[in-house]
Amino acid sequence: MTFPLPDPMRRALALAAEAAAAGEVPVGAVVTDAHGTIVAEACNSMRTGNDPTAHAEVAALRAAGAALGTSRLDGHQLWVTLEPCAMCAGAIALARIDKLVFAAEDPKGGAVLHGPRFFSQPTCHHRPDVMSGIGEAESAALLKEFFAARRA
Question: Pick from 36, 27, 13, 15: which is nearest to 98 by CA?
Answer without folding.
Answer: 36
